[in-house]
Amino acid sequence: MHGARSEHARVKRMLPPVVRGLLWALIGFLVMNTLVSEVFDRMPYHPFITRASVTLGWVAAVGGWILGVGAWEGAVKPYLGYPEEWVVPQDWRKYFMYSTDHKVIGLQYIFSSLGGFLIAGFAAMLMRLELMKGQMWIFNNPGAYLSTVGVHGTVMMFSVGTVALVGGFGNYFIPLMIGANSTSFPRMSGVSQWLVPAGIATVVISPVLGQWTTGWRGYEPLAGQDPAGILFYYLGVFALTTSSLLVAINLTATILFKRAPGLTWNRIPMYAWGILAVSLLNLIWLPEIQMTFVMALLNAVIPLPYFAQIGSPLTYMEMFWLFGHPEVYIIVVPAFALWQEILPVMGQKSLFARQWGIIGLVFVMILSGLVWAHHMFTNMRNSQMLPFSFFTEMISIPTGFAYLVSLGTMWRANLKLNTPTLYTLMSMFNFLIGGVTGVLLADPVVNLQVHDSFFVVAHFHYTVIGAMVFSWFAAFFYWFPKLSGRMYNEFWGKVGAIWVFIAFNMTFGQFFFLGLHGMNRWVPVYPSYLEPMNFEVSLFAFLLGLGFVFNFLHIAWMWNKGPVAKDNPWQAKTLEWQTASPPGEQNFDPIPKVISGFYDYRDQRLPIRNSPQKEPTS
Ligand code: HEM
Ligand SMILES: [Cu+2]
């Protein structure tokens, strides 16, 4: 008892963990930066901050941050054999400190990616504001515009696209869906979460060190000529990808080894299949891009002109897109899985051709590694184009399976047209446009015409926003009752969905035509005949931004004020719905035994039996 009280006192005496994390980060940076710039880099009149000192200073700062928010007591000291002394208060403060509870970590990830979305979305609004006129008028030089494009793309890809549905909803729901009380590596998971805010902050402040002009792809040899801001691009992306890599390790192990008894391979829920598939993609490709960035970073710090001299300048491009194309599927595979998760529930109808859904996910995953050079048609001989064009078009077949399964499930179903369903259908519609224009772009004849134009920008936003962000919202509303214990407002939910759907299609649908009329990417200055259209497109973009904010306000409001939700308001069969809303600290007590699959709605019985001793009654 005495021990517990003194621990409690200890926690009270401590600074709030986030504040302590910032303090330790600052100390770490100052100490390391000073050491490196004074001791190892000593020259007369040498600046206090150098490329080497800022890079190593950053490493120390991130270390200080992670330890300071609680990994010191929560992960390091227990590892060294000290007793666990990290006490997490059971109120809102638990979200602002190191935690090992997958539900807290999941919400922290959701919150972090939401922050990234709002920051990068604000950058997009600035870009669209600039593009309302053909001459520069918001930014005062092209480098400032390009840095904003880079921050927007980087933060969106690595803290939203890669994270929101995996680190966020994955961490929260995978253990619940497979009948487990925790993930496999909870301490590591606690650490990985805190890399996300660190990574976002690093990328966002990067232009302070100097404008970088490469966009989210960091192309060499251009990057090598950029000022020091590019360092924070590499480092920020390194933090974000490390986080996703740790999530992939943790969730793969969790799905493989922590399933409830009876949850056999052919009963694994579709969302868990989706998370397993993207985790494998992450495990294969994130280390590849990380090593590429480490080489580019060494080039910027030492210098070690690997890409300019030892390899060819195209080497970087190849290495980037080797990862870059699978990255697209890292973003949309969870979206496909969500369609297949939500539609049977909302139609109360059995999932159609489940095996084909899984085969589709797996083949998309495999083929995504064979198509990278379709981003480089302008850099190759005609004879080299065929295989990349061919494999790219082949991806539409397993992708088609995701549609087949979803449409087959909806066929003659009495589909409840509520907010999650609406978002799911919208995601399917948008991805159809993203996919069809992708097939067009895979054709070199078209590609060479529209390369680096807004046609391409339209195409990939149809996949990243149209498919992924829309299904992210589907997930938010579908699981809202479970996350918050409350119900959202169906009317305002639908208003929000229709709002962003119209604004999105009016904005990005017109990007295609802008591109076909000759609007280039990466330019703040363009010919005046494009001005009226750009002006009007920007208005729709602002409407879209407002629509997103409206949806988040609705979610935040109903989180506190919505009517109390039932445990299983959709009458779903998967296990997360068989817990309380929101689930207690212990998800399942006892761990349930699974006796049938989750997607057979002809059978009225629940797929679980709670006391493992008894035999089924029929
Ligand atoms: C809020 C709505 C959004 C708007 C209005 C928007 C607008 C834009 C525009 C105008 C560009 C092209 C800039 C240029 O080349 O001159 C761009 C680039 C980009 N956007 Fe978005 N975007 C939005 C959301 C997103 C989301 C959700 C993602 C990913 C999850 C994303 C990922 C990217 C990427 C990767 C680039 C390429 C950056 C580069 O060229 O390096 N965007 N966006
Ligand atoms: Cu690609």
TrEMBL record:
GO terms for cellular component: membrane. It is found in: Membrane. It comes from the Bacteria. The chain crosses the membrane at residues 21-40, 52-72, 104-129, 149-174, 194-212, 232-256, 268-285, 291-308, 320-339, 351-373, 385-410, 422-442, 454-479, 491-516, 537-559. Keywords: Electron transport, Heme, Iron, Membrane, Metal-binding, Respiratory chain, Transmembrane, Transmembrane helix, Transport. One of its GO terms (molecular function) is heme binding. Residues 86-595 form the Cytochrome oxidase subunit I profile domain. Coiled coil: none annotated. Its main location: membrane. One of its GO terms (biological process) is respiratory electron transport chain. It is a multi-pass membrane protein. Cytochrome c oxidase is the component of the respiratory chain that catalyzes the reduction of oxygen to water. Subunits 1-3 form the functional core of the enzyme complex. CO I is the catalytic subunit of the enzyme. Electrons originating in cytochrome c are transferred via the copper A center of subunit 2 and heme A of subunit 1 to the bimetallic center formed by heme A3 and copper B. PANTHER family: CYTOCHROME C OXIDASE SUBUNIT 1. Belongs to the heme-copper respiratory oxidase family. This is Cytochrome c oxidase subunit I.
